[in-house]
């Protein structure tokens, strides 16, 4: 394999992968290849990405938990500035890990990326004063196809880190349903 290290089935959840690219640094700074199709294919991750997205947020912003209902997306997410606690929740019906989540701190220093396959809800909480978050998607965004799960669903029981500021959620994210409501 080339310039990436892959941790398959992160948190024991099939399909989730933590990817760490090689970082080459010296006193001038560093260089890192953040995405290489050949390296991904050699790692068994043959995904064609069609869209790149980037967001900026301040400390305490919690985005999610989001998914696309009829046009699910595989996402490759990373932080280019600051740090976030990133979460993926398995919502694949019939999966042995349905309703379970995996959380990881993504930072500009650790360069880790999370590959989130189709069939997951995704969200993140900004832990630093400011964060820039980037992600690739393997399908286009369809605004009329948005789905979501409330960030504090007691059945999922995500252990969000404390940020010592009030959480800042969009009005839409404050009223998302619980996972069990989506099943009924």
Structural features, described:
The structure is a single chain. The chain contains three helices and 13 strands; from the N terminus they run ββββαβββββββββαα. It has helices at residues 37-42, 171-174, 179-183, and strands at residues 4-8, 17-21, 23-26, 29-32, 51-58, 62-68, 75-81, 83-90, 101-107, 113-116, 120-126, 130-137, 146-148. A six-stranded antiparallel β-sheet has the order 1-2-10-7-12-5, with no helix packed on it. A five-stranded antiparallel β-sheet has the order 9-8-11-6-13, with no helix packed on it. Strands 3-4 form a two-stranded antiparallel sheet. A hairpin with a 2-residue loop joins strand 3 and strand 4. The longest helix is centred in the N-terminal third of the chain and has 6 residues, at 37-42. The protein is globular.
